[in-house]
Amino acid sequence: MALKRHHKILIGSFSFVVLVLIILLGFMNYTLYVQETQHYSNLKDTLSELQTSTQTQINSLTTNLVQLQNSTQSTQQQINLLKAGTSDDFSGIIQTALPSVVTVKTSAAQGTGFLITSNGYIVTNAHVLADANGNLASNIRVVTNNQNTINAQFIGYDGNMDVALLKISGNYQALTLGNSSKVQIGDKVIAIGDPLGLQFSVSEGIVSAIDRQGSNGLNDYIQTDASLNPGNSGGPLIDKNGQVIGINNFKISGGENLGFALESIYVKQAINSIAQQNLNQTLLN
Length: 285
Prior knowledge:
The chain is α+β, with helices and mostly antiparallel strands. The chain is 37% helix and 25% strand. It is rod-shaped and about 140 Å long. It starts with a helix and ends in a 6-residue tail after the last helix.
């Protein structure tokens, strides 16, 4: 049966409306998709900016914490120096210096040394490393203040100055070599070492004389009444500023409190000479 004209119009109109609705729905879906895509992109950018901002703040906070820690350490060191400079209280300087002092052990003897760089270079007396025949002893070990025992590498020595250079692995707190040419008679000093095997012992005294002659015939030694005994050899002689003004070397037997330390300016020269010959570099400026 053939459709009448008004039926055709009705069906056509209905089809047109459906088609328009389909087109509208498609357009709306597309618009929503574009908006969602844009929102997702904006959200992704926002998250990225937040991550960058957060990381920047974390880095800034870390830097501030490190600066604060360094500032605190510096302030404490200044307090320690102030205490030592205005009284007889060396406790702060001793506390700061002890982590830089080590016990040096070999198959033949035991003495003292101290760190001169943060990457593990140690200075001691050459005779601490010698056996009974004057040869380099074997199995050189270093005992740190926290009782860690570490095998040490022998770098070289200056026999005339009785100075030897060792190296251990790791990072450490180092002592600073001061200018011994500014040392005056009567200055207060402390000696740190292992007298008779008593590790990390501290004795206090004054500078009794300067430019004393040593067994090498050179007038390169500070005389001190700070108690020195076998085992102190190679340890630091430290002034009220917390700096090393000499390396404890020997004492005169039969007398009381007659100790001698090689002046720091000559220690520095010997160290750099050893480093130049064996490492092709200068360790101390």
